[in-house]
Amino acid sequence: MATSSTGGVAVAISRCSSATARLIGFTSRSRSSNVLLLTRLKPSFCIRCVSGEPKQRVRDPVTEEGDLEILRSFPLEAASIASSIQYHAEFTPLFSPENFESPKAFFATAQSVRDALIINWNATYDFHEKMNVKQAYYLSMEFLQGRALLNAIGNLKLTGEYAEALEKLGHTLESVASQEPDAALGNGGLGRLASCFLDSLATLNYPAWGYGLRYKYGLFKQLITKDGQEEVAENWLEIGNPWEIARNDVSYPVKFYGKVVTRSDGKRSWIGGEDIVAVAHDVPIPGYQTKTTINLRLWSTKVPSDQLDLFAFNAGEHTKACEAQANAEKICYILYPGDESEEGKILRLKQQYTLCSASLQDIISRFERRSGGNVKWEELPDKVAVQMNDTHPTLCIPELMRTLMDLKGMSWEEAWKITQRTVAYTNHTVLPEALEKWSYDLMQRLLPRHVEIIEMIDEQLVGDIISEYGTSNPEVLEKKLAAMRILENFDLPASVAKLFAKPKESPIVETGEEVEACDEATITDKDEPALKETQEENKAVNLEPVSIPPPKMVRMANLCVVGGHAVNGVAEIHSEIVKEEVFNDFFQLWPEKFQNKTNGVTPRRWIHFCNPDLSAVITKWIGTNDWVLKTEKLAELRKFADSEDLHIEWRAAKRSNKTKVASFLKQKTGYSVNPDAMFDIQIKRIHEYKRQLLNILGIVYRYKKMKEMTAAEKEAKFVPRVCIFGGKAFSTYVQAKRIVKLITDVGATINHDPDIGDLLKVVFLPDYNVSAAELLIPASELSQHISTAGMEASGTSNMKFAMNGCVLIGTLDGANVEIREEVGEDNFFLFGARAHEIAQLRKERAAGKFVADERFEEVKEFVKSGAFGGNNYDELLGALEGNEGFGRGDYFLVGKDFPSYIECQEKVDDAYQNQKRWTKMSILNTAGSYKFSSDRTIHEYANDIWNIEPLQIN
User: Fold this and answer.
1) Segment 6-9 long-range contacts (CB within 8 Å, at least 24 positions apart)
2) Which residues pair with 231 in a beta bridge?
3) CA 597 to CA 389: how far, in whole Å?
4) Nearest to 926 by CA among 485, 611, 514
5) Which one of 99, 195, 624, 872 is most buried, by most CB atoms within 10 A?
6) Distance separating alpha carbons of residues 193 and 794, to the nearest angstrom
7) Which residue, among 575, 661, 728, 618, has the nearest Cα to 234 in the 3D structure?
8) Within 10 A of 95 (CB to CB), how many other CB atoms are there?
9) What are phi and psi of 429, to 5 degrees?
10) Which residue numbers are catalytic?
11) How many C-beta neighbours within 10 Å does residue 12 have?
12) Which three-class secondary structure state does DSSP give residue 139?
């Protein structure tokens, strides 16, 4: 016995043999699954309170009275799992021991799952280390993982066992899983794609890791108030993350500012400045029905403890004392901090460099360790593939060059060859504002050595362009250099500039002749005094207005193209735009670099786990569940597309999902919706090019027409609809926030209009995330993917909707083009201008040739009339008016496409009234979605870009 002298509490500690003391394996001996088994009997201690009030303990169904009888009714797996959950509830607690409520049950359950994952995780790591094969590293500023519990136990094929174990412990799997917050590590399609890729990489047994940042507060949590969208910090880490393991022994220094000096050996060295430390936090990513469990390594930032200024702290200057720590920690506070201020720009650039620097140090350390004592740097590209997910990780290129030259002693030529063979770039946008540019001056202050290297890359690029195109046509060469250089608004090197030198005009003019100024200003005889002989006096009489030169910028996308060996778009139409428009000059120079890799989504999370009712129907009719790994088997549904029996089961699965969503919307918004109405859904980041404004104006038109009809006319003309929106507007994107406000105002009016009832409902779901998508997508019947043609790179939610039997309405943009080809033109509602028409339509608008459809004008006037409250929408609608100018001229062609859109919506109503036809369309969408598995995409990356092979643990 031991007695505490501080709390007056004595505890009795004795060795016990309870099942609570076991760390148990998680797979059935009879199952053919190849998930690794772990059964380990650990010494354990029972801790008994011997003073004070007795405390409630978690019920252990195995060891309490009657345990033998319970054990007989328990499958072995469920009994073992229940004991493991009990063990973690008591011995790795994050909550007080008084109760076993749902939050505590979630953490204990997650920790029990993590035990199983760690075994496979470690085995995967050891196997990859031993085999020393080439490995891919996926760097992304976002990983939008969603909840992990159901995905993990689903991949381990233990969903039923966990459900039964939790039921015996007084909980349901559904209620426990709902306690998990979504990991706030992303915002939209970029992060969700990265997470799908990790799932596929693990499932397909590819040696790969993901690298990102561990954002403490995420992007933001979205609130919808009477004023529209408001933002508060995410709290996903407030009570911890049971999935991550802090690797305090894995940390790397990261430097900012300072200066560059030349060492005695002639090499450059970056010294001084501000130093922080990046610390690794690892998250296991399990594959489906495989032991392979890969790693997502997230970096947090701090400074060593000795940087706390104790003297200042004790002198009462607490903020000053903690300044270094605060500056380090804030790097990983927020995803995409506002960058309108200088400080915001600095913070964003710090984030990007932290990701690149820490990740590359880790990758290189692993390469050196696996090489043993015989490091051959020329073999780095044979062992390492670095994929930059968009331009955020661009600094990988100069950072790898700096490491190889300054730290490893390589020449420029050697380092450049290795870097180009190691790095590849995925482009995700054609929007000019999304092709990142950084202030040269800011980057030079923050990363002086990297700017030196970028200048050298740019100089080499200039030489390559001149070598390719020659100097016989200076005009063409000048255009090429202006488009392709990494450094924007920079003078050309002197040796090149002379090629474009124009002969100087004589300063001597005839009396009375006007003198033309160099640029736009004209100086007359009256303004100009007599010319003087000296240069100084000549300068003095130059009365031209002083023009401010454009800022010097670093074009990150150009650096990506130059510094990598492959550039890929993410849908066929997008990749063509990349080649023909965005990077056409580079494509002409290096056509072999450019590829297409159409995006995909993981069928595990996005149909098998989130839509179990439909999954069961698919498996029954196909005759196997192999489709979860081999989605091409989904095409077999086509031969049953007219079966009435399948139609009945298909509609029942959809109705079940709609009922769940109706309850969810009631809980989240207070609005009641009819599950028998059509569920019409648009869930994506709020942006003008994604055209949520077109959707809501179409709804306003529908509502206005309903108000003009009798009850009988309304019911005959329109099918009942529930129009659901979800998505976040970036906190400083004012126009996007105005769109959110309009949507919520329209919904508040329509949903309370007794003349409309259940014929039309409009619901904006606040704080849309992955978990919400996992409910909404299985319940969807119509989904809107209506971006201005040529502006959406791919989209991935369109793939998820199609996979779940949702019919799409959309433009020929992004992956819509390929989805329509696969599901059939008759099973996709198409409208709007085509991508090749957009430029000409904008020119016609600017020339004043556009004539708006009277229905579009009618809708705008209806909104302005105050029908949806007293908010002033002039600035929002003003963007749709005028012919040109900032914030004017309807750049995203809402007015142009509006007539086509509402006419297409009439076709939707007609089709939905024929439920046999609609159900067949739904089935054929699922059948045609097989191409859009991320497994297919990852195979293409692995074969065509990374050159890696699967490595399966036996």
Assistant:
1) 8/51, 9/49, 9/50, 9/51, 9/52
2) 222
3) 13
4) 611
5) 195
6) 11
7) 728
8) 15
9) -155, 155
10) 428, 684-685, 690, 796, 800
11) 12
12) strand
Q: What is the mean pLDDT of each run of 10 residues along the chain (954 residues)?
A: 38 34 35 36 35 39 39 60 93 84 94 94 96 97 96 94 94 96 93 97 98 97 95 94 96 98 94 97 97 98 92 94 94 94 97 98 97 93 98 98 97 98 96 87 98 97 94 90 96 79 56 40 38 44 70 97 98 96 96 98 97 98 97 98 98 98 97 97 97 98 96 94 97 96 98 96 97 97 97 95 98 97 98 96 94 96 94 94 82 97 98 98 98 98 98 88
DSSP string of 858-914? HHHHHHHTTTT-S---HHHHHTTSSSSSTT-S-TT-HHHHHHHHHHHHHHHHHHHHS
Separation of alpha carbons 282 and 294, rounded Å: 10
Measure the CA–CA gap between 817 and 541, rounded to whole angstroms: 62
Query: 389 with 426: CB under 8 angstroms?
Result: yes
Q: Yes or no: say if 42 and 23 are a contact pair by the CB < 8 Å rule.
A: yes
Q: Give 350-366 as a DSSP string.
A: HHHHHHHHHHHHHHHHH
Structure tokens at 110: 């997650």
* Cβ-based neighbours of 840, under 8 Å, separated by 6 or more: none
Q: How much of the chain is in helix, strand and coil states, percent to nearest 5? A: 50, 15, 35
Overall pTM > 0.85: yes
Other Cβ atoms less than 10 A from the Cβ of 426: the count is: 27
SS3 label, residue 937 = helix
If you search the block for the tokens 């007015």, which residue do you land on? 895
- What gap in Å lies between CA 485 and CA 133, rounded to an integer? 36
The CA distance from 384 to 132, in Å, is 10
